[in-house]
Amino acid sequence: MSWTKKVLRVNLTEGTCKEEPLNMEWVEQFLGQRGLATKYLVEEMDPAVDALSPENKMIFITGPLTGTMASTGGRYSVVTKSPLTGGLACSNSGGFFGNEMKNAGWDMVIVEGKSAAPVYLNIQNEKAELLSAEGYWGKSAWETEEGLKAQHQDPLLRVATIGVSGEKGVLYAAIINDLHRAAGRSGVGTVMGSKNLKAITIRGTKGVGNIKDPARFFQATQEAKQVLAENPVTGEGLPALGTQVLMNVINEVGGMPTRNWQDSVFEGAGKISGEAMLEVRESDGKANLTRNGGCFACTIACGRISTIDPEHFTVKDKPEYQIASGGLEYEASWALGCDTGVDDLDALTYANFLCNEQGMDPISLGSTIASAMELYEMGVISKEDTGGIELNFGSAEAMVAVCELVGKGEGFGAIIGQGSKRMCEKYGHPELSMTSRGQEFPAYDGRAIQGIGLGYATSNRGGCHLRGYTIASEVLGVPIKTDPADADGKADLLIAFQNATAAFDSAGICIFTSFAWTLENVAPQLDAACEGDWTPERLEELGERVYNLERQFNYAAGQSGADDTLPDRLTKEAIKQGPMKGQVSQLAKMLPEYYAARGWNADGTIPQETKDRLGL
Amino acid sequence: MQKSLVIDADKCTGCLQCEMACSVHAEGVFNPSKSRIKTFPFHDEGIFVPYTCTQCDEAWCLHACPVEAIQLNRETGAKEVINDLCVGCKVCTISCPFGTINYNADSGKVIKCDLCGGDPECAKACPTSAITYVDANWTGYDKMKQYAAKAIPGQPAS
Q: What value, to the nearest 5°, has the Cα angle with vertex A513 and ends A291 and A184?
């Protein structure tokens, strides 16, 4: 069955930890992780609550394949109401925290209320307790993990924690586990900070058993691993270059948002690419990439472990950063680099370290800095506002200085920490915020690549590539190649991706497997592990159900069809140069097609018959 | 022909597939805390090192055991714990210089690598071939070959 069937409910206001049974009826409909947590949240909480109030709840949840030998089966999600978007936040992380929760005997942990003083939740198998975190408040994620392991005299303790940014109310604070894996987006770390919950520590030794049909499970997981190994993306591209394999690819397509989306080709892309991370530098004879780091059970190992040139200005007198740690992902390299015009690989790696150290989403951070740079060059923001920082595009020094400030929520960093929507509104130029639903876009230009633009507009968590990664089809040709510039058929393509992704995200596995796997590869693994018949068709419908439920949450939280939109820069300002010159997003054409194909009304609301069909 | 586990840490990504394969084979559950092989992440250096019993010929654990609960499997060369004999005294865990035999509080017995009877699951599960199971007399074969290859004209000398 693969679920532990146990939920840990933690009330921070009352200081209690209680066990309750998992709702298996909801499991049938929502599987686990992303889907199941959304169901719990919708049933238990009014979506209209203030995201940073004690009334908001946080759910840390595994999937049925978490903790098993299924490749990438180590994922967990954090689901809550987002302070950044006001809608649903659902952030997914790898590393080794999710499997530890499952090994301790818990499918999920629901956190309610607010503690009067800083605490951390300590879980040792069936025992759970809230302990004082006074000594860790004000400490970084790195210091906190190190301190907690020392305090418990347990090097095998798994820790998920916020850094200082989450304490200070930076609206895109992340939760960091295993030092450099993150539940990164939508401010899930901010919610944690608002509850005075500094960290969760887990040690689980019970193991994950109860596989329905072990022999068939080994067969299915083994076959699926073989599919990953033989696929050019998961078997070659990602292991060799990480997600940074995309830097040159997307740039060549002409879909690389540059300098706050003023351009769509970045002249410095080659210098900050995955290939550049392999080049041996002169100073110490080493490359930026030290090693591939795999998350739990992952047979792809796209994770990058990097070191910064010890002679680089960012770390020259700081030995604490002259270590190997979590290196650049494509999205971080884009946001902190292309979007700010910075082509300094070491500066980007340092900024990425800071994001891990203090728990910040590098996409929202880099994108907000980029819009501030545009405001600075327009003369709207001055050196007085920035505290003396000359915030020009291309300045590695400025980019890094702002990252340091945001990490601690200090000075101009507190303003950048509010995200680009609020920051641009504050300075009177809301049109310069490259966001949807208040969340910053990732690294693909929706004018050049039509499907992903529609994806940004309709993503339930705001600007995001991980709700429906049509780039796979539009650029990489997976499962079939479609023309990125052509809007025809993109509504249907996106819906197929969105639904499948919601199913992957509910299973306990990583979405990167979907470069090689379809639901045809996932279903046999689930079916062998779990009771009930799990077919690709059932999973696809489950994904659609999850997507609709998330939208229902957002509507109840105050969003509407009017939020399915993009900034004018994407729909009206044509791309100025490169292969996609002259293109704008054809959102106005695609959105009605999307609504119709979803079975939604023309205003974006979900009609009763669609709800009935999906059992909502 | 006897075979040995050979570990190449340079290839390890720290994914723990080996620990799961080991625990599910030996204990019937996916449970890294019950694995006979352990992967150590050295974070600041960026290296992952899998480590397990090397099956010493003159095995300290075997000699230390007061009840002869650790015995040689002549076919595989593994030193195996005979659960029916083990009394959980832990003397072997003290005697092993490498720490690769450990007490399991749930069973009251010690656990160590037994090479899965000659078909080690960890080696089969490793996605990067960081763990291999090769001719015990030629564990240096790959490294030898690597150095021998330097004789090929045009190879950089180092």
A: 70
Q: Tokens 């620990």 belong to which residue?
A: B19
Q: What is the pLDDT of residues A37-87, one digit of tens each?
A: 999 999 999 999 999 999 999 999 999 999 999 999 999 999 999 999 999
Q: Which of B15, B31, B46 faces A205 most closely, judged by CB atoms?
A: B31
- Tell me whether B21 touches chain A (CB under 8 Å): yes
Looking at the DSSP assignment, which residues form a beta bridge with residue A495? none
Place of tokens 């009840």: B67
Q: Does the distance separating the beta carbons of A225 and B127 come in below 8 Å?
A: yes
What domain range is B89 assigned to? Answer: 3-149
Q: Do B29 and A301 touch (CB under 8 A)?
A: no
Any CB–CB contact under 8 A between A605 and chain B? no
Neighbours of A299 (CB within 10 A): 26
Give the separation between CA A25 and CA A433, rounded to whole angstroms: 42
Q: Chain A window 273-292: which residues touch B at a Cβ cutoff of 8 Å?
A: 290-292
Q: How far is CA A233 from CA A93, A275, A515, B44, in A?
A: 20, 15, 7, 29
Size of interface A-B (CB pairs under 8 A): 85
Judge residue B130's burial from the number of C-beta atoms within 10 Å of its C-beta, 0-12 exposed, 13-18 middle, 19 or more buried: buried
- 3-class SS shares of chain B: helix, strand, coil, % to 5: 35, 20, 45
Contacts of B32 in chain A (CB under 8 A): 99, 103
Q: Pick B46's closest partner by Cβ from A208, A291, A295.
A: A291
Helix (H) or strand (E) holding A247: helix A246-253
Whole-angstrom distance, CA of residue A606 vs CA of residue A552 = 8
B156 located within any domain: no
As a whole number, mean pLDDT of residues A394-422 equals 98
Whether A348 shows a pLDDT value over 70: the answer reads yes
- What separation in angstroms does the CA of A273 have from each of A286, A289, A328? 16, 11, 9
Residues of B in contact with A69 (CB under 8 A): 17, 20-21, 24, 30, 125
Q: Give the list of residues 6+ apart from residue B22 with CB closer than 8 angstroms, or none.
A: B35, B36, B37, B113, B121, B122
Chain A: give the shortest CA distance to residue B57, in Å.
31
Question: DSSP letters along A526-579, please?
Answer: HHHHSSS---HHHHHHHHHHHHHHHHHHHHHTT--GGGS---HHHHTS---SST
CATH number at residue B120: 3.30.70.20
CA–CA distance, A77 with A60 (Å, rounded to integer): 6
B33 in a structural domain: yes
DSSP A505-535: TTTTS-GGGGGT--HHHHHHHHHHHSSS---
Q: Do A209 and B29 touch (CB under 8 A)?
A: yes
State which amino acid sits at residue A126: E
Q: What share of chain A is helix, strand, coil (3-state, %, to 5)?
A: 45, 15, 45
Q: How far apart are CA B71 and CA A105, in angstroms?
A: 35
Residue B122 backbone dihedrals phi, psi, to 5 degrees = -60, -45
Q: Do A207 and B21 touch (CB under 8 A)?
A: no
Q: Which residue of A has its CA nearest to B45?
A: A324
CA distance B149 to A200: 51
Residue of B15, B31, B127 with shortest CB distance to A103: B31
Is B111 in CB contact (< 8 Å) with chain A? no
Question: Six-digit token pair at A73?
Answer: 């089966």
ipTM: 0.93
Q: How distant is the Cα of B41 from the closest Cα of chain A, in angstroms?
A: 10
Question: Is residue B155 included in any domain, yes or no?
Answer: no
Q: What is the mean pLDDT of chain A?
A: 97
Taking the CA atoms of chain A, what radius of gyration do you get in angstroms? 22
In-domain check, residue B158: no
Query: What per-residue confidence (pLDDT) applies to B157?
Result: 52
Number of domains forming the structure of chain B: 1
